[in-house]
Q: What sequence folds into this?
């Protein structure tokens, strides 16, 4: 009975120990092998180094280093079967001394487990000959890119200088760095002073000017420069998210010289009887700051009105009354008169279509511009004698017959007396 | 209704004929021929004859079919001998034109005595007509200004003589020299004379075919024209305001109203007086008084009265002349002109000095 009791007690203790061991070191076994004295096992930026193995006492001293610190973060003295646990990025890592061996270099057999292996960087996992001093630790370079455009307020045609600089504020070098940059539309590249030539490395803490170039504005407006970007990796080849610069904004004011041709159509009256005449005037003035050339003003006469003449400056080109002038100076004014005849009843508008060229002092080529102008509605009423045309046919026949007879008689008389 | 033929020969005859045709429309507007018709009471046929086509073209109121052109350059140049030849050449054409118009009761041939075509054509035409027709033919002859030239005076003298011998039933004289008292420029004077003659003839034609209170007809006119020496003239006056009829008659018989210078009371042989106007002016006492005064001097006076309401009094007188002092004066001047022309021609014929001057270089050529 006592034997049964001891046995039961032993079994219960074993189960208890098993449960305890299971509760403290549950997870994936990363390592279960021997490590020579002075070597280590690296998990991310931690190195579990077998500092000393004392075979005779079946103990071993285990140091855990973090990063390149020369002082171990943990210094554990383990006997066979002892374990200790520490945390890497929130996950528990348990190290158990399984056994020790003697030799040229003593060795310790360790079991290393981790609760969640997904945090492990595979490139930094495994045995490290030489231990902590020989381990390679992953670094995190951080590239901060600053893009400036100076000056931030210019006029059209002015030149701005764009500078892009980068600073590595991380704890490691940025390698295989590739920069990219783009210029906004409506700007023309003038000169590139500095530009990257390909992949490069930005050392930890280094600040470098990456781009320096000048641009010339061509249009007015508010322009946002796209950010400059960089893709890079660290020394072990980890790719990092793309770094982006700020997006500078500049205002470009319109400082170009333009010709501005104001064309106004004026009529002497806007209500007219059919068959009556209208007198019109085309008033032109260049209110811009540049002379206009090749000025063409087409007078678009609607059906129902008929162009019946005008000043000598108006030519009929392809059936369209057209004013053409080789040049039209700044603030120059001109008035051109024309006549229209109202043909059909109705409501019409008269319009002009103008086009001209000018030099804005910015672009080497002449700029073209066009405009239109429209009169108020013109009402063509029934003519004074239009009612005559609305009568039944017999109303015309009788007078026509009478006129014909009279004309015949007059001609007959004329012939009688013509010698 | 009478059938009357009026022929205008030469430029003067054409123009007077055109004036008659114009006045026959009743208005003087240039468009009258288009808008109206001629108001002849009788059947009046008019014919214009000329050698100068331009004179015919100038006529505005005579129908083209009534204009006969007898081509000879542009006129006969006041040469009656040439004119006579042209007439002979075109006689058939002219006579056929007249014959085609039928028979007539009376004919008047109007001409200038001094020109070329009219003065030469008219006597020959009347002779031809008298040989072929039975109706009386009267010549209305316009005498020239005395200062117009010797050829015109010579033509007038021979024309009148030829007319007397042509068989014309009477020669009614109108004298430019006498009528120039009207004054004005040359054109207006000629036009005025033409208008005067045209108006008198129209009045006469109207009277011969009108219903009258007191009748004078074609027979009376023939009787009047048969009297005297075959010469006659016409007087006319139209009151421009209300005036006694006797005053109007006196003015029609005075130089103011006559076409030829004559003393009606001394030189007239027979007379016709035609009075027209509103009834209120027709005082029988005044008319009788004036007619008696004239008849006491000339013998027979035919009188006719035409009543036209609201018309002022107008009087036409036809006087045949026993003698004409003025005509004798004309012939005296004409004789001088004929002699002058003859002597000049003789001088030119006998004067060979110019020929002798030219004969000095006969057979010679110029050397250069």
A:
């Amino acid at each position: 009975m006592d034997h049964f009791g001891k046995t039961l007690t032993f079994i219960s203790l074993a189960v208890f120990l098993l449960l305890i061991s299971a509760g403290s070191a549950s997870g994936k076994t990363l390592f279960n092998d021997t490590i020579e004295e002075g070597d280590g096992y690296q998990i991310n930026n931690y190195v579990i180094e077998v500092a000393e193995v004392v075979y005779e006492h079946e103990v071993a001293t285990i140091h855990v280093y973090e990063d390149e610190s020369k002082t171990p973060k943990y210094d554990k003295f383990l006997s066979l079967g002892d374990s200790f646990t520490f945390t890497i990025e929130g996950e528990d890592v348990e190290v158990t001394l399984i056994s020790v061996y003697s030799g040229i270099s003593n060795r310790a057999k360790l079991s290393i487990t981790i609760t969640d292996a997904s945090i492990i960087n595979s490139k930094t996992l495994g045995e490290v000959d030489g231990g902590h001093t020989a381990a390679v630790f992953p670094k995190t370079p951080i590239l901060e890119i600053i893009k400036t455009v100076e000056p931030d307020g210019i006029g059209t045609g002015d030149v701005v200088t764009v500078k892009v600089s980068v600073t590595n504020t991380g704890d490691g070098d940025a390698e295989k760095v590739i920069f990219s940059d783009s210029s906004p539309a409506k700007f023309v590249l003038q000169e590139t002073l500095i530009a990257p030539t390909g992949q490069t490395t930005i050392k930890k803490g280094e600040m470098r000017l990456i781009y320096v170039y000048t641009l010339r504005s061509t249009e007015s407006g508010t322009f946002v420069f796209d950010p400059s970007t960089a893709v890079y990796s660290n020394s072990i080849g980890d790719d990092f998210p793309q770094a982006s610069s700020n997006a500078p904004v500049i205002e470009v004011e319109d400082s170009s010289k333009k010709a501005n041709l104001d064309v106004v159509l004026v009529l002497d009256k806007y209500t007219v009887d059919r068959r009556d005449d209208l007198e019109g005037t085309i008033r032109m003035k260049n209110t811009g700051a540049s002379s206009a050339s090749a000025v063409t003003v087409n007078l678009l006469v609607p059906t129902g009105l008929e162009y019946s003449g005008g000043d000598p400056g108006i030519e009929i080109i392809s059936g369209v009354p057209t004013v053409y002038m080789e040049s039209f100076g700044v603030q120059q004014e001109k008035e051109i008169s024309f006549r229209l005849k109202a043909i059909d009843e109705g409501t019409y508008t008269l319009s002009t279509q103008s086009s001209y060229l000018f030099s804005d002092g910015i672009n080497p080529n002449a700029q073209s511009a066009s405009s239109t102008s429209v009169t108020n509605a013109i009402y063509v009423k029934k003519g004074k004698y239009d009612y005559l045309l609305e009568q039944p046919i017999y109303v015309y026949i009788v007078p026509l017959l009478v006129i014909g007879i009279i004309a015949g008689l007059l001609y007959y008389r004329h012939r009688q007396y013509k010698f | 209704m009478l059938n009357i033929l009026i022929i205008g020969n030469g430029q003067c005859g054409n123009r007077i004929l055109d004036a008659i045709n114009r006045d026959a429309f009743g208005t003087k507007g240039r468009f009258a021929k288009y808008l109206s018709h001629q108001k002849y009471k009788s059947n009046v046929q008019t014919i214009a004859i000329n050698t100068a086509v331009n004179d015919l073209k100038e006529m505005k109121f005579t129908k083209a079919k009534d204009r006969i052109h007898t081509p000879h350059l542009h006129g006969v140049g006041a040469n009656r001998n040439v004119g006579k030849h042209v007439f002979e050449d075109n006689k058939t054409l002219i006579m056929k034109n007249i014959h085609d118009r039928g028979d007539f009761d009376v004919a008047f041939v109007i001409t200038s005595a001094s020109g070329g075509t009219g003065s030469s054509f008219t006597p020959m035409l009347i002779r031809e007509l008298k040989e072929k027709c039975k109706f009386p033919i009267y010549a209305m002859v316009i005498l020239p200004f005395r200062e117009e030239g010797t050829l015109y005076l010579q033509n007038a003298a021979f024309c009148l003589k030829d007319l007397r011998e042509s068989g014309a039933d009477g020669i009614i004289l109108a004298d430019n020299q006498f009528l120039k008292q009207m004054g004005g420029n040359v054109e207006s004077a000629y036009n005025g004379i033409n208008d005067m003659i045209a108006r008198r003839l129209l009045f006469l034609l109207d009277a011969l075919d009108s219903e009258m209170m007191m009748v004078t007809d074609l027979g009376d006119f023939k009787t009047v024209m048969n009297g005297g020496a075959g010469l006659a003239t016409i007087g006319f006056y139209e009151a421009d305001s209300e005036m006694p009829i006797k005053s109007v008659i006196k003015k029609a018989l005075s130089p103011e109203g006559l076409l030829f210078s004559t003393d009606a009371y001394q030189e007239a042989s027979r007379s016709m007086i035609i009075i027209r106007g509103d009834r209120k002016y027709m005082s029988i006492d005044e008319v009788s008084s004036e007619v008696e005064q004239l008849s006491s001097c000339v013998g027979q006076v035919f009188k006719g009265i035409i009543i036209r309401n609201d018309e002022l009094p107008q009087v036409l007188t036809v006087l045949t002349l026993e003698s004409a002092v003025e005509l004798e004066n004309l012939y005296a001047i004409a004789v001088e002109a004929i002699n002058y022309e003859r002597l000049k021609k003789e001088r030119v014929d006998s004067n060979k000095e110019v020929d002798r001057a030219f004969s000095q270089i006969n057979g010679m050529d110029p050397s250069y």
User: Anything to note?
Assistant: Helices of chain A lie at 2-24, 393-417.
